[in-house]
Write a structure and sequence with these properties.
The protein is mainly alpha-helical. It is built from 17 helices and no strands. Helix 4 runs antiparallel to helix 6, helix 5 runs parallel beside helix 8 and helix 11 packs antiparallel against helix 12. The longest helix has 36 residues. The two termini are 32 Å apart.
C-alpha cells in the first residue's frame, strides 16, 4: 500500500521501507548466482568462465535501465510529496513508454555487438563462443527487465516495496527450476541458464505491469492514457538519463578491469567470476538504502521539509555503510565456503580468494559515494554527480589499469583500484550534495525539476 514518507520516525520508516527492497535485491542476486552455480557445478569451469566473462557487460546495460528507472522514482516521489496527482499520472504513463523503448534499443545493441565487445576485451578463445551465446540470449530479456525496473521504481516511489518483492520471488523460483532443467536435463549449459533468465524476466515484467494496470490509484496505468507527455519526458530524461549514463560509464570502466583480469590464465578468470558474485550481493543490499534515500528525499523535498531531507541522507548513509561492513566481514571469514557454491575446484577457489580478501574490507566505503549520489538525485540533480563519477571513478580506473596495474602486473594491484576510486569520488560527491542541499532550500529560491 502507498505510504506517506513525509511523516513518522525516519530510522524505523527507512528500515521498514528498505527491508523488502533489500530482500528483493538479494533474491535477484541469488537468482543470478544460481546461473553461475548451476553452470559451475554441472557444466565445468570453462562454462563458468564463459558466463562470468559477461558479468560486467551485462551489468553495463542493466545498470543503464536501473538508472532510467531511478529518474522515474525521483520524479513520482517528488510529485506525490507535492500533492500533484495529475503530474503523477502523466509521469507514470510517459515513463513506461520511455523505459520500454530503452529496453528495446539495448536488446538490439546487445544482439548486434556482443561478440565484438567480447573480442575487444580479449576474452579467452576457449570462453568467447559460450560467452557470446549467453549474451545474445540474455539480451532478449532486456525489454522485460526495463519494464520490471520501471514498475519497481513506481512502487518504491509511492512507498510500496513489498509488491515487487512478491513478483520477483515468483519469477526467481521459476528461474532456478528452469536453470536446473535446462542445464542438467537438457544439457544446454550456458544457453540453458540464459534462457531461464529471459523467461523469468518476462514473468516478473508481466506480473508487475498487470498490477499497475489493475491499480485504481493515481499511479496506476490505463491504456487510453498511454502517451508521451513532452514535459514529463523531458523531466524523466533530465534526471534519469544522466543517472543511466553514470551506471553505464561506471561499468564501462569496469570493462577495463575485466580486460586486466583477462591477461591472467583461465583459472584466474574463473576465480574472479566466482568472487565477483559477492559484488552484487553487497552492492544490492546497500542499494536498497540508496533507493530509500532517493524516495524519501524526493517526497520530502516536494513537501519542502529541509530537516527530514538532511536526516534521510545521514540515516541511509549509516545503514548502507553498516550493511557493507557486516557483509564484507562475513565474506572475509567465510569466503572459501562462499566460493565453494560456484565451483568445486580448489585452484579456482584460491584464485577467487585473492579478490575477496581485498574487496571484503573495501565494500563499505562505497556507501559514501553512492549515498551522496542518491541524495543529489533525490533533489533532482543528476548531471554533475554523473560527471564526478566519470572523472573520479571511471577515468581514474582506466588510468590505474594502464599505470599502477601495468607497472606491478599483479592481481592485488588491480583490485585495489576499487577502494581508491571510491574514496576519491566520495569526497567530491559529498561536497556537491552539501552545496546542492543548501542551494535548494535557500529562502525564496525557486528551483525546477529540469535543473541539473
Amino acid at each position: 500500500m502507498e505510504q506517506d514518507l513525509t511523516k513518522g520516525n525516519l530510522w524505523k520508516q527507512i528500515f521498514v521501507f528498505s527491508l523488502p527492497l533489500m530482500i528483493s535485491n538479494l533474491l535477484q542476486v541469488l537468482f543470478n548466482m544460481a546461473d553461475i552455480a548451476v553452470v559451475g557445478r554441472f557444466a565445468g569451469s570453462i562454462a563458468l568462465g564463459a558466463v562470468g566473462s559477461t558479468t560486467t557487460l551485462v551489468t553495463l546495460f542493466t545498470g543503464f535501465l536501473i538508472g532510467m528507472a531511478g529518474g522515474v522514482n525521483v520524479l513520482i516521489a517528488r510529485y506525490l510529496g507535492a500533492k500533484k496527482p495529475k503530474d503523477v499520472e502523466d509521469a507514470t504513463h510517459t515513463a513506461v513508454i520511455i523505459c520500454l523503448l530503452t529496453g528495446i534499443v539495448i536488446m538490439a545493441a546487445g544482439l548486434l555487438f556482443a561478440y565484438d565487445i567480447l573480442s575487444l576485451l580479449h576474452t579467452k578463445d576457449e570462453l568467447i563462443a559460450g560467452a557470446a551465446l549467453y549474451l545474445r540470449i540474455y539480451f532478449l530479456g532486456m525489454p522485460a527487465l526495463a519494464i520490471y525496473n520501471y514498475g519497481n521504481a513506481v512502487f518504491s516511489a509511492v512507498g510500496n516495496t513489498k509488491k515487487p518483492l512478491y513478483y520477483l520471488t515468483a519469477a526467481g523460483i521459476i528461474n532456478i527450476i528452469l536453470n536446473l532443467f535446462f542445464v542438467i536435463v537438457c544439457k544446454l549449459d550456458v544457453a540453458g541458464v540464459a534462457l531461464a533468465s529471459v523467461i523469468s524476466q518476462y514473468i516478473s515484467a508481466i506480473l508487475i505491469l498487470g498490477s499497475l494496470f489493475r491499480s485504481k490509484e493515481v499511479y496506476g496505468l490505463c491504456l487510453s492514457k498511454l502517451r508521451l507527455n513532452g514535459k514529463m519526458a523531458s523531466a524523466i530524461l533530465t534526471i534519469g538519463f544522466p543517472s543511466a549514463v553514470q551506471y553505464g560509464i561506471f561499468q564501462l570502466a569496469n570493462l577495463f578491469i575485466q580486460f586486466g583480469v583477462n591477461t591472467f590464465d583461465a583459472t584466474m578468470v574463473a576465480g574472479n567470476s566466482a568472487a565477483a558474485n559477492a559484488d552484487g550481493l553487497v552492492y544490492d543490499v546497500m542499494a536498497a538504502f540508496y533507493t530509500a534515500c532517493s524516495s524519501f528525499i524526493g517526497q520530502n523535498y516536494g513537501a519542502r521539509d529541509k530537516e527530514r531531507v538532511r536526516k534521510t541522507y545521514l540515516i541511509t548513509l549509516a545503514y548502507s555503510f553498516g550493511a557493507g561492513a557486516v557483509i564484507g566481514l562475513a565474506l572475509e571469514l567465510f569466503g572459501r565456503q562462499f566460493l565453494g557454491l560456484f565451483t568445486p575446484e580448489a585452484a579456482v577457489i584460491d584464485a577467487g580468494m585473492k579478490r575477496l580478501v581485498i574487496m571484503g574490507f573495501s565494500y563499505a566505503f562505497s556507501a559514501f559515494m553512492d549515498n551522496a549520489i542518491a541524495a543529489s538525485r533525490g533533489l533532482g540533480k543528476s548531471v554533475v554527480p554523473t560527471v564526478i563519477v566519470i572523472m573520479g571513478s571511471c577515468v581514474f580506473r582506466i588510468i590505474w589499469v594502464y599505470t599502477v596495474f601495468a607497472y606491478f602486473g599483479t592481481i592485488p594491484s588491480l583490485y585495489l583500484l576499487y577502494i581508491f576510486s571510491w574514496s576519491i569520488t566520495a569526497v567530491v560527491e559529498m561536497i556537491y550534495f552539501r552545496k546542492v542541499y543548501r542551494l535548494q532550500f535557500s529562502p525564496g529560491l525557486c528551483t525546477t525539476l529540469q535543473s541539473p
